[in-house]
Structure formats: structure tokens, C-alpha cells
Amino acid sequence: MGANLRIEKDSMGEMQVPSDAYYGAQTARAIENFPISNLRFPRGFISAIGLIKRFAATVNVELGELDANIAHAIETASLEVADGKWDHQFVVDIFQTGSGTSTNMNANEVIAHRASELLGTAAHSVHPNDHVNRGQSSNDVIPSAIHLAALMEMKHKLLPALAELRDRLSEKEDEFDTILKIGRTHLQDATPMRLGQEFSGYATQIANSISRIEQSMSHLQELALGGTAIGTGLNTHPLFAEKVIAALSEATGLPLREARNHFEAQASRDACVEASGALKTVATSLIKIANDIRFLGSGPRLGYGELQLPSTQPGSSIMPGKVNPVMCEMLIQVGAQVIGNDATITFGNTFGNFELNVMLPVIGFNLLQSIEILANGSLVFARRCVAGLTAEKTRCEGNIERSLAMATALAPVVGYDQAALVAKNAYETNRTVREVAREKMKLSPEEIDRLLEPRQQTGS
Questions:
Q1: Which of 26, 103, 169, 221 is deepest in the core (most CB within 10 A)?
Q2: Active-site pick, 19, 37, 311, 316
Q3: Which fold has domain 403-458?
Q4: Which of 11, 186, 317, 460 is the catalytic position?
Q5: 423-450 burial by CB neighbour count: b if 16+ within 10 A, else e?
Q6: Is residue 317 annotated as part of the catalytic site, yes or no?
Q7: Mean pLDDT confidence for 66-82
């Protein structure tokens, strides 16, 4: 054994562990067993599991299940974990045991080692299972940590980011309200509208997205704590879960509650699928908005050219002066990833075999990644794209007169068929609807101009 290694023991025997590692034998086995991806649980999850361990120790003292000195050391060590001090000690790959036991034991070992250190006593005076994991099982801790982490990330990151994006879009709705443009359906010219109306649709999509996220949080607020191995609550105090969840709720400001049925809470991840479905819906809204803005800003001379997007970086390594809609493209890629994550989460939930879902790590990782990238992508897009959008008013309003869809306003007076003939003739002769109507229709020029006034076609 090298000078930089120490021997640790667990129920399976001895393992070599780096001398400076705070984890122990079970984590070392997981490192050896799962050299798969270099993907790890994110910061939010580690914070959540640290909080769970902290309040578990607090409640176990209160219930007479744990020595006060040991519990206080565990509380301090767990808070350090929650605050990120020991993130580098969480080394287990996402692709591991389906219950996440390796990650739970990684936390237990790090906290036990640090608590022993804080007590200033012999190594292992705090035991990862007997003390840190008291009244718990990986099977109820990991689902609870996934739910808690998702809720905290939604509350503190995703919802504020979406709110800022909604507000930026609403600002553009007001700013662009007087600018007339042509609408489009099937990628073809349609009737006139105001550019502000187009942005009102985007702002409402994001407002609806916020509502969907908030609604999906309800079932995530149920925690599996208290079910231990299979949902029966074996080896835990009857009041343990209730008290830990109450403490977590007070600390986080989240309306957490104990699962109504612990067998459902451990065998299924339906709440994660529901939340992921809401995230996927948000992703599709963001893709639609980003794609519209990308197309409306295309050109600058030979595209739609109705919007001017902020220039954020050179767009080409070969074409000088080219600027690309990179923020839109970033957000579209974020949306694609979230849609893919949703497929993984959905499939993962089908592996709730009997009393335990065995896809917990990959479900948790993908759910938390979706929340994180949607939050970051929305915030960057709001600040570095939407906030700097300007309208090309001349281009917007000039397109209206050339649109064949202007014939729609004639139909109530002259009939659909006659209006269609006007549009067809205008297309064939490369003239405007107004010019052909004045030539072909028995209406005064004043009446034609009144009917074809674009602003009155845009509604209120």
C-alpha cells in the first residue's frame, strides 16, 4: 500500500482509500465498480442530501435515538456538505446502483468522517450507518433528495429566470405595439398584425410556463422519508419523518409533507415524470419563441429582416462581418436536451419494480439538469437577446402592402371568390392587392382604402 493510501473496512472487507479522502470503503468500492461517465450529482442534489442528514440528526436527538454530541457534530458536517464545502468528496458516478445507495453512503461516509474530525476523537467514532443514516434508508433518502433538490432549484433558479424572460418579452410587447407587420401561417403571408401582438403571444407562453412549473411542484412536495427500505418504516421512529420534513420545510420555505403512501413514494417516480413533462412543455415554448425570433431577424438584407438581434460575437470563421443568432440557437439546443432528458425520465419511471424504482440516479440527474439548463438558458436569452431586440419598422410595414393576404379584408364586401381572383391577379401581374382592386372592382378608391387599412385589421 502506498504512503498516500489508508485501509478502510466495511461489511465486505478491506478497501484502500486515498489518505486525504473523507469517504470510506463503500464509496471506494463504487468508484471501482462504476467508472462509467464522469457524470456526478449536481450541487443542488448534494445540498438537499446534506439538509436531510442535518435535520435527521437533529430529530434523532430529540427522539432519544442519538447521542447529542455525535448529533451536533453530524449537524455541523451536514451543513458543510449542504453549503458545498465537500463537493469534491462526492465522487460516485451517476450510472451506479439503481437505488442510489452508493451516493447515499458517499454522503454518510463523508459526514461521519468530518463529524469524527470535529469531535476530535478517534477515527470512526461517528458511524456512517449507525449514526448518520439513523432512521433512514437509501430507498427513502435518495427519492426525497431528488424531490427536495428539484423544488429548491425550481423556486430559486427556474421560476425567477422565467419571470425575467416573461417581463422582457412583455416590455417588447409594449415597445412594439404600434409597429404594423404581416402575420404568417404555414410560413405563408397572412393578415396584418402588430409586432407587439406577436410578442404578447410569447410573453403569455412564458407566463403559462410559470404556472405549469408551479402546478408540477405540488407532488414533488411529498417526500418519501419514513418509508425506509420498502415503505413499511422498519427501523425508524414513528415520528421521525414528520419531524424531519417539518424542519426541512421551515428551513427551505417549501410546503413539504410526508408521502401519503410510502409504497407509492418509493416504488414510483410519477411526480418526477409529471415535473419533467412540465419542463418539456416549457422547452417547446422556448424553442418556438427562439426560432421565431431567429427567423424574424434573418438576413440582414435577404431574409425576413423584421427584427434586429443584438450582436454578441462574430458569426463565422470564414465570412467577415457575419453575425449569427447564437442566443436563439443556444436556447433551441437547451430545449432539445430537455426533451431528450424527459424521454429518459419517462423510461426510468417504468422500472419501479415492486417496492423500489431502480433508475433513481439517472432520473434525478436528468431532472435536475433540465431545471438547471432551462433556468440558465432562459436568463441568458432574456438578457442577451430579448432585451436588445429592435424592430425594423420600415421593413415590417412595407411588407404589408405587398402581401396578397390583404385580399382577405375585401371578402366580406365582394365575396370570397372575387377576393381570391384579386389576389391571384395581383400575384400573376406582380402588383399589390390595392392596385388590382382599384382596377377590377366596382368600389370607390376611398372604400378600397378603407377596407385595406391595415391597422383596423389587427383588432384591439
A1: 103
A2: 316
A3: Ribonucleotide Reductase Protein R1; domain 1 (1.10.40)
A4: 186
A5: bebbeeeeebbbebbeeebebeeeebee
A6: no
A7: 97
